[in-house]
Amino acid sequence: MENSEIARIFWQIAELLELKGENPFKIRAYQKVARNLEGLSQNLEEIYKKGGLAALEEVPGIGEAIASHIVELLKTGKVKKYRELLEEFPPSFIELMEVPGLGPKTALLLKKKFKIDSIKKLEKATAQGLLKNLPGFKEKKIENIRKGLELKKKVAGRYLLSEAGEFAEALISQIKKIKGVDKILPCGSLRRQKETIGDLDILVTSNRPQAVLDAFVKLPQVARILGEGPTKSSVILKNNLQADLRVLDPENFGAAAHYFTGSKLHNIAIRELAIKKGLKISEYGVFRGKKRIGGKTEEEVFKAVGLPYIPPELREGRGEIEAARAGKLPDLIELQDIRGDLQMHSKYSDGGNSIEEMAEAARKLGYQYIAVTDHTLSTRVAGGQTEKEFLKELEYIDKLNDRLKGFRVLKGVEVDILPDGTLDYKDAILKECEVVIAAVHSNFKMPKDKMTRRILAALKNKYVNLLSHPTGRLIGKRDPYEVDLEKIMKAAADTGTYLELNAHPERLDLNDAHCLRAKELKIKLSINTDAHSAGNLSDMKYGVATARRGWLEKKDVINTYPIDKLLKFLYAKR
What we know:
By secondary structure, the chain is an alpha/beta fold. It is built from 24 helices and 17 strands. A seven-stranded parallel β-sheet has the order 11-12-13-14-15-16-17. The chain has a five-stranded mixed β-sheet with strand order 2-4-7-6-5, with helices on both faces. A three-stranded antiparallel β-sheet has the order 8-9-10. The two termini are 50 Å apart.
């Protein structure tokens, strides 16, 4: 069982306990451990195998009671507390609760008063117009529910990049143990690092293909077998994700890697170039007539059509062929280029760790600086602080920096952009910060023109140097709010404001296409994790992956620069 699966169960326990009106401290304990598990780099099951219950209790947020739940889950696949809740709230209701725009409380109301306790029943009631007859369900609310159902359908069967990556890593670690496996490579949309993944395509080379395939379908992650053949087997994993394993001859590995990585548009373009040169390119190699002239490596495939190697993240049919032909492929940003993280939260608001703990975790990642950007008053639900409380946090950061050597904690804030475009803190407070990130956290349903004006007003403030998660989306949970992003980007360019690429796997906001547009407009970005625990700092890799898909280079991202240059960027507007 992977960490994300355990985290999902604890999130659901927290939500269901909240619906029952249980102790808020107990609810927060489940929420805290779920958040920490999402950012935990080491597998919980491995931690338990190596150190037992005591080792689990050393993981941040895991106390004695939670640790016992985890052990029960790892041993039996079930948790008594969760089973008890499921007796009151069946799985169909949990699915209903997760419909974007609906929410747990509305779902409970539908269940209790109107006997609607599943997505199927809700779809039927919506289609037949029955919701119009229910008290409290106005047209706008019904429309939001309708949109939520559409969004739920759109992402059905797809997994966040972080989840799919975690599942693939665990599966690959098992495949590597199979005798006879040589090279191994995950392909498809996972290799291209798309924000959501539909299935896993894994290639291996081996001189014992049948033995490898036989062992693959018997791995502990496999729930059922979809198909078996001499070179390929397809299975459904226990987390419902489909995985295909192909066993190849080493001579075909590069051609197969290129073909099964995709995308379809990219592959079509490559094949068209090959045809013009009298060649044929397939998953089996590069051919001139019947003679095989290449395909052992991907470089051979690209060289055959006169191109340099194109990184997988760029293979989307968005001009990469033309750029490669002209010698203008970007020198894509790498994870090791990141020198710091400019958005995270501490115990001063809704974070799970102290500022010192966040700094220490960042230092272990090789960073030179971080910015702590806790919430302001309007986001009280997320521990937002009054101005007086916030100034005490800044005093603490000054004292902490006196103790730190070779590392800097920047004084920051994630200030709310209020509906009228004003900011949650006065300029006199913002002036004390080195990093001021402005963000929309409320009134997401504003009309497009008003939302655009709201954000434009914030960008004009001379202390605002970053716009956080600019579209407000949560992948599979909340659509972007309506905003004229082109106007926002041009205003950012005009005012010298930087845009954030929020690396949280549910956000990845800006997305890859927006990153590319920002680059065209010569707007620099900052890739930040928005970490709410020390473990979440590792989410940076998802932000970098999205940046690479958006053609970004090291020079395009302000937190790849040393502290002195970064501060010049941050103070440029003042």
